[in-house]
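Recall from the previous lesson that a structure prediction takes nothing but the amino acid sequence as input. Here we apply that procedure to UPF0301 protein EO081_02590 from Sphingomonas desiccabilis. The sequence below is the only information supplied.
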Amino acid sequence: MDKAAFLAGQFLLAMPGIGDPRFEHAVIAICAHDEKGAMGVGVGEIVDGLGLHDLLRQFELRTDLVADLPVHVGGPVEPRRGFVLHSKDWGGQDTIDVAGRWSLSGTIDVLRAISEGTGPEQFLVALGFAGWESGQLEGELSRHGWFNTPSDAELLYDVPASERWERCFIAAGIDPRLLVSATGTA
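The prediction returns the following tokens.
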């Protein structure tokens, strides 16, 4: 597969009728994608009743220097594992650059920096991730299920999770009210 066809740094938007209730109106920030598979973090839904302060307290970290932001449902794989998508102005030992658009960190170092006021300027926290084996995502993209679109920092950090799916489609020039849950054949 041509490297340009890989989707790291893009958003995957669930199409209506995707067929899996876990992904209804999902927005997935694709963090890694190559011939071996893909990994992304959900940014379109938040965990009810869990905020950043709750996570910080679990690690005995300060909460007074940071807003109690929502925690996102990152995906069905390893739902207790945390990830932070963040601006490129901070990096730790495990931080990876995602196609020059944002960074991804998955250790307590980034939470510690955030709690101390020395972390990235922009960030969001998620639990779990979405993963695809080799060729699986490409197969799903060839059927009615996902729509990929370039990512945008404003959509990632400044738009509430509840509005992100609709706003991502609009940014791609698509009115989501006109989408249907089935495809036809010619």
